[in-house]
């Protein structure tokens, strides 16, 4: 699926909050409208695309975070992606978007 076809309730299909380059891909945090309620599965706003804008993966939200949570920031350190989501710091595999570890920080 192309990035412009990715649909979540509160994303306008254009706004990107943050972009990191990783190997042959871009890791994105979508800039979502917080005034619109999320879908039942939450608004998964952390994903990776290749340079042709094909979605490679979409990261799940942390298990214990409510559905209205969203990813707020990301950082790459030693080929690991650190992502802040609500009260959690997640360590994510940037190759596939799988959460490796969730740490409660608040």
What can you see in these coordinates?
It is a single chain. The protein is an all-beta fold. It has one domain (3-104): Thrombin, subunit H, CATH 2.40.10. The protein is 0% helix and 43% strand. It has no helices and eight strands. The strands form two sheets. The chain has a four-stranded antiparallel sheet with strand order 1-2-3-4, with no helix packed on it. A four-stranded antiparallel sheet has the order 5-6-7-8, with no helix packed on it. Strand 6 (80-85) and strand 7 form a beta hairpin.
What attributes does this structure have?
106 residues, single chain, mainly beta
Concise summary:
The chain is built from no helices and 8 strands. It has 106 residues and is mostly beta strands.
CATH class: Mainly Beta
What order do the strands of the largest sheet run in, or round the barrel if closed?
A: 1-2-3-4
**Secondary-structure element order, N to C:** EEEEEEEE
Q: What's the total count of β strands? A: 8
Runs with pLDDT <50, length 5+? none
CATH fold-level name: Thrombin, subunit H
Q: What fraction of residues sit in β-strands?
A: 35-45%
- Can you summarize the main beta sheet? 4 strands, antiparallel
Q: What count of helical segments does DSSP give?
A: 0
N-end to C-end Cα span: 35 Å
**In angstroms, what is the radius of gyration?**
13 Å
Mean pLDDT: 91
Helicity, as a percent range? under 10%
Give the overall shape.
globular
């Amino acid at each position: 699926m192309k990035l412009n076809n990715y649909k979540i309730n509160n994303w306008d299909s254009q706004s990107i909050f943050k972009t990191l380059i990783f190997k042959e891909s871009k890791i994105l945090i979508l800039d979502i409208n917080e005034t619109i309620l999320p879908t039942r599965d939450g608004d998964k706003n952390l994903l990776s695309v290749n340079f042709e804008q094909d979605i490679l993966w979409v990261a799940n939200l942390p298990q214990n975070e409510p559905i209205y949570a969203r990813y707020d920031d990301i950082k790459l350190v030693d080929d690991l992606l650190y992502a802040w989501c609500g009260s959690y710091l997640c360590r994510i595999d940037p190759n596939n978007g799988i959460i490796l570890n969730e740490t409660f920080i608040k």
